[in-house]
Amino acid sequence: MTAPDSDSAPQRTSVAVIGGGSIGVAFAIVFARAGHAVRLNEPDAARRQSIAQILQARLDDLSGYGLLDEPAGAILSRIAIVASLSDAVADAAYVQECAPEQLALKQTLFAELDRLAPAGAVLASASSAITASAFAADLPGRARMLVVHPGNPPFLIPVAEVVPAPFTSEAAIAFTQDLLTGAGLTPVLVRKEVEGFVFNRLQGALLREAYCLVRDGVVSVEDVDRIVRDGLGLRWSVIGPFETVDLNTQGGIASHAQKMGPAYQRMGAERGQNDPWTPDLVEKVAAQRRTLLPLDRWAERVAWRDRRLMSLVRHRKTELEA
Ligand SMILES: NC(=O)c1ccc[n+]([C@@H]2O[C@H](COP(=O)([O-])OP(=O)(O)OC[C@H]3O[C@@H](n4cnc5c(N)ncnc54)[C@H](O)[C@@H]3O)[C@@H](O)[C@H]2O)c1
């Protein structure tokens, strides 16, 4: 077994997944698909009984879409479903905790994992909003603990937020990033612990406004989903929100902020939010965008975005509307 002070995660390692709900089952697929031996721990007997069938169905679907490099059975054979926590983690190099989102439960579970898992194993939580500082600060092995928050399901949504606490070791972070990358995920390092991390804070900003708009009778629930599905979301599957406004405005994002900043500030103030896009902040954002895309390549990138959207729109026409 390779310890987290090694240079990078090994090709094949021993992974324990704790909690066999939606995320645990999906993570078991991610790691087994990458060739790792997975021990999936689920304490609830009825749930445990159903997991093999769920895994088989998901893997058959992935295979049907040509998304597996080998037969579903070969991947399934790498996953052992176990009732006991100590059996699950006995020889693990990496533990992915996927138990319910409750602080007290995660605190107890990480104390147990710290006691049961080999000293070199990295212990990660799939927590959606609870930070490692909240569940691990008092534990002796806290340097090997952090959050790895996936999109749902991680075997389809590659981004995974890696959220260390100030006490998490660099070695544990590097090992985790290597392991996730090797498993086909896209780890994004979150530089400060904030509740909800980045994924859910962005989602939360949109959802909070959506709730307000429905409450105030501006739009129906169905039409909010339509505007995101056929508008914002369609574009965001090709480029993110910063690049969107950068490419939507001649002169790039600085020009967008100048034209639209005051209107967005009024919209925020209506909701009690006072976070203006100050000149310093706009300069910081614009400088990062200009490093990623010099303005002399702006038109070329707009054409690229349109071609990516054409490909996506064609896919939606042939596949989704069939
Ligand atoms: N569902 C999502 O969209 C999503 C996305 C990203 C992260 N997460 C996070 O992943 C974690 C798991 O979420 P989920 O949606 O899979 O939950 P879930 O309720 O579907 O599954 C949790 C599983 O953990 C089991 N469990 C309960 N107590 C346990 C214990 N002490 N030890 C081990 N297993 C235990 C339960 O029996 C259940 O099968 C949560 O922290 C959640 O916030 C969820």
TrEMBL record:
GO function terms (MF aspect): L-gulonate 3-dehydrogenase activity; NAD+ binding
3-hydroxyacyl-CoA dehydrogenase NAD binding domain mapped to chain residues: 14-193
Pfam family, one: 3HCDH
InterPro entries the UniProt entry points to: 3-OHacyl-CoA_DH_CS, 3-OHacyl-CoA_DH_NAD-bd, 3HC_DH_C, 6-PGluconate_DH-like_C_sf, 6PGD_dom2, NAD(P)-bd_dom_sf
GO BP terms in the entry: fatty acid metabolic process
This protein's UniProt keywords: Membrane, Oxidoreductase, Transmembrane, Transmembrane helix
Domain 3-hydroxyacyl-CoA dehydrogenase C-terminal: 196-289
Transmembrane segments: 12-32
PANTHER family: 3-HYDROXYACYL-COA DEHYDROGENASE FAMILY PROTEIN (PTHR48075), LAMBDA-CRYSTALLIN HOMOLOG (PTHR48075:SF1)
Family: Belongs to the 3-hydroxyacyl-CoA dehydrogenase family.
Protein name (Swiss-Prot/TrEMBL): 3-hydroxyacyl-CoA dehydrogenase
Source organism per UniProt: Mesorhizobium helmanticense
